[in-house]
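Pasting as-is:
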Amino acid sequence: MDWSVSAPGHRSTRSLTSRRTFRYGIIALAVAAMLLAYIVTVVTRANAAETLLSQGKPTTASSAESAATPASSATDGNTGTRWSSAFAVPQWLQVDLGSAQQISRVALNWEAAYATAFTIQTSNDAANWTSIYSTTSGAGGNVSLSVTGNGRYVRLNATAKATQYGISLWEFQVFGGSPTTPGSCGTANAAQGKPASASSTENAGTPASSAFDGNNGTRWSSAASDPQWLQVDLQSVQTICGVTLNWEAAYATAFSIQTSTDGTNWATIYTTAAGTGGTQNLNVTGNGRYVRMNGTARATQWGYSLWEFQVRVTGVPSTTNDTPSSPSQSPSNPGNAVLLSYNKPAVASTFQNDSNCNPCTADKAFDNDPASRWATSPTNGWVDPGWIYVDLGAQAHITQVILQWDPAYAVAYQIQTSNDATNWTSIYSTTTGKGFKETLNVNGNGRYVRMYGTQRSNGYGYSLWEFKVYGTGGNPVQPPAPPADPIFPATNLVWSDEFNTGTNVDTSKWHVDPGTGQNGEIQYYSNLANTSIQGGSLVIEARKETAGGRDYTSGRINTSTSFTTQYGRVEARIKVPKGNGLWPAFWMMGADFLQGRPWPYNGEIDIMEILGKSTTDVYSTLHAPAYNGGGGYGQKLTTVDLSQDYHVYSVEWDSKHMTFRVDNQVILVANKDTVETTRGPWVYDHQFYIILNLAVGGDFPGPIDASTPFPSRMYVDYVRVYK
């Protein structure tokens, strides 16, 4: 069944359908493989001041692989562009500094096609050359070479290459200077208070921002897996000369420091495989707006953790954003901006209203509901241009726009403002839109704000789950206040069932949910016949017997009529059965399912799923409109045989993240910002209820066979919710 487009087939306001098919579908980070492909040589530079002489200067080469890789790309200060040569040696690249200069250092940022043998040469006439450095054992990566020489022209002359291709450089930097030259390495922390982001966080109390707050008593910590990264946006391109890492006990043994001008293409300026933790003061050389620590090997069983991550730059750190219309790496709102667009009138070029999207009108992009959306009409709206605008109710100053795209996103679009909804002024423009969540820091004025799309990403139209406008002025409507985030570890027990009394489930706490399942399951869920209380545990028993037109029976219960929760720690102590085709689960469904919102728009949180054929594996998964069924956002953890004893399965859940564990082992950390920027809307900020069941057969666990034991039992010692 294609769960991405259809709701469960059996549903009522009092009865819960079965669980959804899951396949592990989390997007993995791929940067580690790239980093390990290089051996990086780092030469600690002298403290004498120096000046970058080559950036933007006339640059020529012996050849270029194509028009897309010219010589000038190696001296443009952009680590996302490169020069590459024809597939032969020798090859050379030279820069004209404009006048004779004292040369003190040359930095080479090699692409994978590097030179194994090369010289650095200087000249005053571009005809007669003097060698100031030579090697026959180049290893690629980032190389910083201390040299001594004079000349107007500086050339790299390569005579042997490492690959069957030519040679290629992301950047070729020439430095010169003396102690009297401006540009010495500063002592101030250029990263303090700047927007920060990370691949993951251990919990809401250890966010990325804590590594850049100047407070040695707060820290960032990651999920317990490799690789992980932490980055800061300096908000303008800076010359990076030093990094200080103040590690907590959970430090990195292998990591790199990287810089980027666009937050996408990264250059390595330091690397080690022998990190020792503590406080590390690193002298580095690089340029970029973004600085990142990328960890590839941990020293402990935990994740990575930094009390502080400091960045030093040459000169006085700039606080001016030189690209004010570029997407921010932080979702925080600047200044005293507030949400201006909530529940405001909206107009669009067209909208969809049919069985596939009912309704997808313009107002759905401004309702603060991440599971509803606007989409252009399939009959006349799958064309360019396509647009949607909101009436803020009064003149406003716009400082930020957040777009949460459906897969039908805009590659090229503008954000425009207007005072009359007729004459529009562009305050942001791009031709390289990537979809998912785009956070745009902008500067404009107007009563109306419009997304004007001019190039679609695919053959469909345009579609937005959310279009949020922040700023000052306007006539804002305050959205409903969310509940406060719990502080973990949460200790206030708000609901529980210890299963210590009676002979069967307490129907004042649990709704028994009879019926058939989905996903190819072969059991019939009975009404109390397959549940009981024995020895202080709930027992859910799967049997080989005929009922409801099926040859097997089992049990399924939920708290839909008695208890729901938004946020907190939800845990259960469970012993699972072993056997091919068995499928025990502990999970939650969005309570709006009971009011008719179809799956997966209500959201699903699978705290634990285990397959009886492999009881050393436990799965935790999230399902939402943009990622569900086999494409759910989840993770598998391989551990001990979970059928041999009771284990505690839990989720710690707040407005920013969820951390799933079995006992004390982390299965998955799902961060709201990461999910929104890589998979789709986060639809979990509302009430959910709890489900326990034992399925038989199905698409995920596979079929039963002659070895599957019947009866088979799932034991639940307790279920508890803390806030």
